[in-house]
Amino acid sequence: MSTSAASQPSKDQLATKAEAWSALFSEPMSDLVKRYTSSVFFDKRMWQADIQGSLAHAEMLAAQGIIGADDLASIQKGMAQITQEIESGAFEWKLDLEDVHLNIEARLTQLVGDAGKRLHTGRSRNDQVATDVRLWLRGEIDLIEGLLSELQLSLVEVAEQNVEVILPGFTHLQVAQPVSFAHHLLAYVEMFKRDADRMLDVRKRVNVLPLGSAALAGTTYPLDRERVAKTLGMDAVSQNSLDGVSDRDFAIEFTAAASLCMVHVSRLSEELIIWMSQNFGFIRIADRFTTGSSIMPQKKNPDVPELARGKTGRVVGHLMGLITLMKGQPLAYNKDNQEDKEPLFDTVDTLKDTLRIFAEMIGGQINPATGKKEGGITVNAANMRAAAQKGYATATDLADYLVKKGLPFRDAHETVAHAVKLAQQQGVDLSELPLAELQAFNPNIEADVFEALSLEGSLNARNTLGGTAPAQVRQQIAKNRARLV
Ligand code: ARG
After folding, report:
1. pTM for this one?
2. Are 347 and 258 within 8 A, CB to CB?
3. Mind listing the pLDDT tens digit for each residue in 332-363?
4. Which of 303, 338, 414, 484 lies 20 to 30 A from 378 at CA?
5. How many angstroms separate the alpha carbon of residue 233 from the centre of ligand 1?
């Protein structure tokens, strides 16, 4: 393409033809390169943040006398129309215009002329995109906080119904000691609470304004960056322009927090899957979260927890992708950073869907007729109890009982091992051995031993802060309830 006056694009064409960056370019992009370099079909989801950032920038430009009040009014009017067009689906997104920023700016110029062209004064797409991602992510973090609260609430509600339900606690997936099912669920509440705290902490570093860094070195216009930050509800202004436009550590941090949260979901999924298997039969989840088999008519498969476990790998993969994306980049902005979006968006989508579906699968859904939640997990307390009774879960309690009678713990441990061996030979639980047989192991054993050997006795004895005694569990439920509503 020559640069003679005759071949120059008209004013109107310029507004829609990003392939003609400037007079400097002598040939257009091939379709393949256009597709390869464009991001509009995924970054258009940040359109609201883009408009919000542009309006805050324009308002400040006008207040500083860099553009006229009439320009600002035109920009505001144009952006209102663009908002309407995007919301109604009438907006035409163009691959030629590369990304969400150029698409919106070009349409603005088409609508309001020169005022639209003035919007980009003192700004670059480099600080613009960094601002947009941060604004968008901040909104998503706030939604995720809400979903994490709902999931915790579901777990607390099921816990409330199951304080006295006893199942075997495991170490190495071998029966260890009996625990309250509520206590088990509350362990996940603690994990999700930390996940929520982590998200809030990440939010502080997300909510910082890079706009005003311009392309990389700052700008010659007298911008009021603090004013823009205030308009956008951001906590701070970035302090170094090179850093502001280039680092995506905030996205990496978010994805790390999301990965940990998914790891917690995945652990819970693993338990739900085990508990649902016929060999355990501890719980059932509602049919709408399961699928059948095309060949085995008796099957109900726990697809949702399995998929959540699988999707955890996907989110952890995004963390690896983002952290690797950053590692080789010299200052300042590089196009590599356009690759931050798809992993980040998919992380947010996956996490939100997962949290929403888990809150419902565990706690159920409100039935509008009764105003009560229905359809959460169903607990089979009898199967849990039978499993707890099977594996000598109260052996430690017998050892503790002997210690209280004056035996050193190591000796008590050994004595109980002999008692368990005898019970195993007879195919009975420790509590089913006659008193006389127990006394043969240690003469200090008295009839009150059976209280210690019972599942309830075992739980009640663990009445220290954080322990599984129902009294402790009830306190934790109350604490969490107060925090979550
Ligand atoms: N679409 C680009 C991105 O996502 C916007 C910034 C482009 N800046 C540039 N100098 N090419 O990062």
Report:
1. 0.94
2. yes
3. 999 999 999 999 999 999 999 999 999 999 99
4. 484
5. 24
